[in-house]
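Researcher: Next entry in the queue.
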Amino acid sequence: MSQLSKTEQVLREMKQYNIDILALSEIRWKAYLTMLKWTPINERNLFAQFATTHTKLSVIVCYAPTNEADDDVKDSFYETLQAVTKDIPKHDVLCVVGDLNAKVGADRKYCPEVLGLHGLGQINKNGALLADFALSNDLVVGGTLFEHKNVHKYTWTSPDGSTRNQIDHFLIARRWCTSLLDVRGYRGADAQSDHMLMIAHIQIKLCAQKKTQQDLKKLYNTDKLQDQKIRRDFCISL
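Model: Structure for this entry, 238 residues:
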């Protein structure tokens, strides 16, 4: 399947599931009018900021190391994630989303401040790291807050089909927690990934930004390049 047809298929899925913002690892997307800026941090983190009617929506998309990865690799990942998080204004709607490769489990005793009653499975080392990060930054793990059948909680199935885990997560700043209406997985969606599509519903309204004259793309009269002298001077300047 060509890259174009893959993109078209995912766009159809977004329309079908009424998705405004889709975070996918290893896939590039164009920035739309509501996006204010986006910054690739490294191969595991990307930051994007969107305009809303009241404040700004800041989203960090993550792809964390696996639970079996070296501790140094995990520490480096969370150090970078923490550095990005601390620079985001406190009044922004902050969301951290993606493949965190972390099981936070169904028992919230480890960190009741950030975990709800409806996780899946048992917490692992990566889950503890994620919970500690959430606690340090006053975030909550959205997928544990809403009661769903287990089939709508897991986000990844092993290649042999024998193991199902909830390792993709949606974290949101506690002060905006009441704006989060639901988080659940959708098995029927094809996101060109071995993970299930996880959708979070947030009650905020995105708004397009008016483009100033400086934002508009500058147009050039390329017909002038037909003149040999102008073309030569242009090449020298370039």
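Model: The chain has a mean pLDDT of 85.
Researcher: Noted, moving on.
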